[in-house]
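Q: I have 206 residues here and want to know how they pack in 3D. Can you give me a structure?
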Amino acid sequence: MQLYNIGVWISALLTLIVLSAMFRENRVYRAVESYFIGLSAALLGYYLFVDVIYMRIATPLMSGNLLYLIPLLLSIPIFFRRIPVIYRGTPWIVAMGIGVYIAVVMTRIFDGLVLRQLALFIPTFHTGGFSWSDVTPLLSGVIATAVLFHFSPYKKVTISGKIFDSVAVISMVVALGVLLGYTVASYIALFVDRIYFLIETFLKMI
């Protein structure tokens, strides 16, 4: 039997086992689920090693950039945190890493979700590419949601504050609905793809 046929049989078997969970959860499904989680964790560890340790630290060090010794030296105590002497300084290193990570992530979120959206809104007022009826609902939803989270304790007593709250809640409900619809649609697409694989590839091979 060709290697391709073996791969198709394994894929079909695993697909049927996973789909069997729709009728009743069973031990075989849980075993395949554990295998998938373990394989995903192994792949994640491999890519983290290649992308972070090798590409971002080892490669610059081999090129002569000794500045990358700093993150390397800071990461070593985390691997030996079970040693009491080293453990004392580990929380400070972890806290610093989390703080830097949050700062980077928040900067990217602010740039992607706020600045870039405003950059799309503002030019439309001048170029005439969109009408006010197109831009106003989106812009008001963004502003109302931001105001809801940052100034809600100070404005709920006023009528304008209640209006902002209502607009923000409606905007978030619509956004969550779209996100949920996108998630469900992606799952349905995966399900259809597996069914198509079983019918088109596996059954025809048999």
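Q: Anything worth noting?
A: Residues 159-205 form the longest helix (47 residues). Helices lie at 3-19, 27-62, 69-79, 84-87, 90-127, 132-155, 159-205.
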